Amino acid sequence: MTANLNQLKITKPDDWHLHIRDAEIMKAVLPATYRWASRAIIMPNLVPPIVTGADALSYAGRIKNSIESGAEFEPLLTLYLTQNTKAEDVVESYQQGIIKAVKLYPAGATTNSQNGVADIKKVYPVLAAMSEASIPLLIHGEATDPQIDIFDREAVFIEQILEPLRRELPDLRIVMEHITTKQAASYVLNESRNLGATITPHHLVLNRNVMLAGGIRPHYYCLPILKRESHRLALIDAAIKGDKRFFLGTDSAPHLDGAKIDVCGCAGVFNATFAVEILAQLFDNLGALNNLEGFVSLHGADFYKLPYNKEKLTLFKSNTALEMPKTLQTEVGNITLFDPLMPVYWQILE
Question: CB–CB of 12/311 below 8 Å?
Answer without folding.
Answer: yes
